[in-house]
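Q: What would this chain look like folded?
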Amino acid sequence: MEAPSDMKPESSPPERPRPGSFFRNREMISRSLIVAALSGHEVLDEEELSNEITAGPLSMLWDIPKDRIASLMEESFGAVIERIALETVGSGDEMDYERGVELIYEEPPERERFTEEAVRRLREEEKAVWRRKLIDLLRKDLNISKADVEQAVRSAGLSSEG
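A: My prediction, written as structure tokens:
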């Protein structure tokens, strides 16, 4: 007797998601949130997100490597999650990332805090990138060695690395 075509061979049960698996893709969630916040859109899917990063409000940051943008957003997300956790649970308790994600999605003030933190960090990074570009252009125009520029920056109490 043949098995009906819609019956599947017996296999191991599908892997159940572990607690916290929702938060595995933090980078995508945080990217989606910051792009959505900057663009005024709802949370975007991966394709929409990619379009926003290359042509939307984040395109102004094209000089910052994508992995650096991702890590800045991750840091922003972590900072806000930590604040939420400290405000909502005892300091000895483990942070509930899933609850933090829910709060950022559901609570406009939390989403705003995340956005402000992420935008602040991204703007600082953008300034550092442009500062480095300007220093490099001046150095090339004036034919000054990189060591001389670094010495001048140190003497002025600035940092060429942002």
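Residues 23-125 form one domain.
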